[in-house]
Amino acid sequence: MQISLAGLWQLSPLTDLSIPQDDITFPAPLSAVLPNTLSEEAIAEQEWHLMHDVEVDETMLANSAIDLVISGIGHHAEIRVNGEAVFDCDEFRESYRKDILPYLQLGRNRFEILFLEQDEDWLLEEEQNELSHLSELLDKEDETRIGIWQTPYLEVLPTARIEQVDAELVNHQVGGCEVLVHLKYQAFKPGLLSAQIKFNGMTYRLPLDVRASKTSAVFQLDAPMFIDPEYFVRSDCYLLDVQLENSHRAYQVGLFDRYDQGNSAQQYMKELHLYPQN
Fold this sequence. Notes:
Elements: E1 2-4, E2 9-13, E3 22-24, E4 28-29, H1 40-44, E5 48-56, H2 58-61, E6 65-71, E7 77-81, E8 84-89, E9 95-99, E10 107-115, H3 120-125, H4 130-138, E11 147-148, E12 153-157, E13 160-171, E14 177-187, E15 193-199, E16 202-208, E17 214-221, E18 238-244, E19 247-254, E20 264-266, E21 268-271
Antiparallel strand pairs: 1-12, 2-3, 2-5, 4-11, 5-10, 6-9, 6-12, 7-8, 7-10, 13-14, 13-20, 14-17, 15-16, 15-18, 18-19, 19-21
InterPro entries: Beta-mannosidase-like_N2, Galactose-bd-like_sf
Organism: Vibrio amylolyticus
GO molecular function: hydrolase activity, hydrolyzing O-glycosyl compounds
């Protein structure tokens, strides 16, 4: 079950306190409710505070986990739940999620997003591998305004969670290739579990061993589409959809052919924001 955190978020300045507070809904840039005298550059140079309250009942608290999912933040931000810092959005990932059940309480709960100045020394220490560099090339968006471009939501997980999904390409000497989809998961309770994995119009439903933590599915491609980072178009990507009980993930998968036949390589993947549909 997914619970949208749509609705009004209170926006307050942390730098220039003379700027009036206002309410904002997402997706939107902060400038949507700020005075017209503030340029986008001036907004990005300041620090901002967003606040939203949600009621939580006993039924929600009885679940095994509740993930907070936030996407579409292009600037450094700190996420807080009931005054506790739970994670940072560091601009290097498309989507962020964390189990916030330990931070929730019965009744009203406060969610905060703080756009703060980032430590430059921390940026210098960030290491990026080849795939993350490829992601930078492919994920450049025209939107540079500070804001939130996807509505945050809660994913309520009573029985299991998708921990990680990877796609691996294996070329064949006789032509074509295989895409291996690796699923890592966590089962919270004993019982029968199954995962549904969809790729390129094909669907596998895999029974899962609750004592294990990973499984894989193999998809055959006779005439694969490959991406070119220099001339990238999203229509060259495949859609990968994975569901495990209440846990749901979707990705754009771009295959790039730079490896010898018979070898395998991890492929470019971009997680898609699923809920709510904007």
